[in-house]
Design brief:
CATH class of the domain at 82-171: Alpha Beta
Structural class: alpha+beta
Radius of gyration: 32 Å
Order of helices and strands: HHHEHEEHEEHEHEEHE
Number of helices: 8
Distance between the termini: 103 Å
Strand order of the largest sheet: 2-3-5
CATH architecture of the domain at 82-171: 2-Layer Sandwich
Length: about 260
Amino acid sequence: MSDDDPGAAASAEATPDENPILYVARPMTTAARQFVKSLVRPSTIVYPYERLEDPRFRDRVAVQAGKPIGVGHVWDNYRGVHALNIATCISCNLCAFSCPDLCIEMVTVPGTDPKHPKKCPEIDYGKCSYCGFCSDACPEGCLTMTTRYELSTPKRKEMVYSPERLYDVFRSKLPMNPIRLELPENEDRILLDPPLCIGCNACARDCPTECITMLDVPKPEAKPGTKLPKRIWKEPVVNDSDCVRCGTCISVCPKECLFWGSRP
């Protein structure tokens, strides 16, 4: 072959990367390598027949560093559908009070005493942002978030979960977020401004944990030419160990004599 042959020169200068066969061989080699790996360590589950939040399948997929969330376990602190234990709920309203999306409403649970109806949270997942503030604020640990992530439905009204539906989630025994039950040492407490109190008993009557006791206070003698204020000579005493800091007593006090503060 002569040096003047342009075809021969082009063939001699061609690099392996320019070989058209490699454009097919490389992807096939990569696919074969991944297939062999999948025989030892599967990277998927057969959804929807297998679900990551189901304990039967959580350990079937290995978890390795650098893998995206969703490959392996659903993390125990994953914030999904709420679970509610109606039996331990004290209707303190802290979940609804702390919700930034206003998606929680306290509704009456059927079958409770008509004179003292029990109210539990109802959650509209069409508004919920899954921030977890409600479960963090729950003093009894009865409202927490599970690893359930399925919420698709063709009807908007089905996005509203009643206390009974949330209780069904609780009974399904899904992994739940850790529950915070201890109060911080520096948390404010309920304090009383005695001169403003009229002893009306509204705080003790509406306290969900019944931690307020009305105690008798000595009735002072009126100064000459003056009259004592019209009131019941009782004052509330709060048991800090049972108080859940829900603020119900402050909201119902007609004289605003209860307030948040720290004792010296």
